[in-house]
Amino acid sequence: MWTRIKTAVVLVIIVGIALFASETPYLIVPLLAIGVTIAAYEWTKLMPKWHIPILFVLLVLAITLITLLAPQSWPAWWVLSTLIWLMALYWVSQFPHSTPWHGKQLSVIGLVLLTGAITAMFYLWQFSPWWLLYVFLLVWCADSGAYFVGRKFGRRKMAPNVSPNKSMEGLAGGLVTGFAVVLAISLFNLQLTGTTLVLFVGLSLITILSSVLGDLLESMLKRKAGVKDSGNILPGHGGILDRIDSLLAATPIFALGFWSMQQMGWLVL
């Protein structure tokens, strides 16, 4: 437990410095590049053994860095990510009886999901570091609420073949916890009203639900690959993918909704 806490504290400090210490991208971009490099390597452990890991890692890193220089392409990556997450909802429900995602296509899936998440994080950070922190907060609070409620009241399994410890009661607890955070920030900090409030709350709740799907997808991939953790670089926590699996889904989906609301003039901040 103490190992997990110490690692978490170090991570919070590193991420906090990268987010808020400078308005220039000289801290956030290296952190994102390091993160996507390690996550890409860990992803290779979840893929069939036909691949050459270093080639996949270099490809993901190169495409991600190039894409960061082409902001006009970011929404397309978020749309592709969202489509994959919608398919993942079906994949999780059918596991282990059907695994159409398992094969060489996992390289494309990993490339899209990692690039979509990294560009979404950078987009939100550019708009304001507080927006990226907002998504982190949504995911962390919902995850904590789901853990404690599920541990106390969990009875009905949400996806027993993928993650036996997750329950529908825990999911409800996570949504309630996240909803409280969303309302507090929407009403008292952003001071949203009317249609904008409804749309923003709806987007935030969808983001919370997608974060659960991100967790389930990685659990499914690890079960198929026969590994407990994606890596061991974070003492007490496993790998980078184990820490950001929820964010892989949450950040591009929130960024796409946030960007769409901006384009439509529904969210002017």
Arithmetic mean pLDDT: 93
Strand order of the largest sheet: 1-2
Total beta strand runs: 2
N/C terminus separation: 41 Å
The biggest sheet, with number of strands, parallel, antiparallel or mixed sense and barrel status, is: 2 strands, antiparallel
- The rounded Rg comes to 18 Å
* Number of discrete domains: 1
Task: Provide an overview of this structure.
The structure is a single chain. With 269 residues, the protein is mostly helical. It has one domain (2-263). Helix content is 74%, strand content 3%. The protein has 9 helices and 2 strands, in the order H-H-H-H-H-H-E-E-H-H-H. It has a two-stranded antiparallel ribbon with strand order 1-2. The protein is globular. The N and C termini lie far apart (41 Å).
Draw up the topology in text.
Elements: H1 2-20, H2 28-44, H3 53-68, H4 74-94, H5 105-127, H6 129-153, E1 157-159, E2 163-167, H7 168-189, H8 194-225, H9 240-263
Antiparallel strand pairs: 1-2
Keywords:
mainly alpha, globular, 9 helices, 2 strands, two-stranded antiparallel sheet, 269 residues
TL;DR?
Helix content is 74%, strand content 3%.
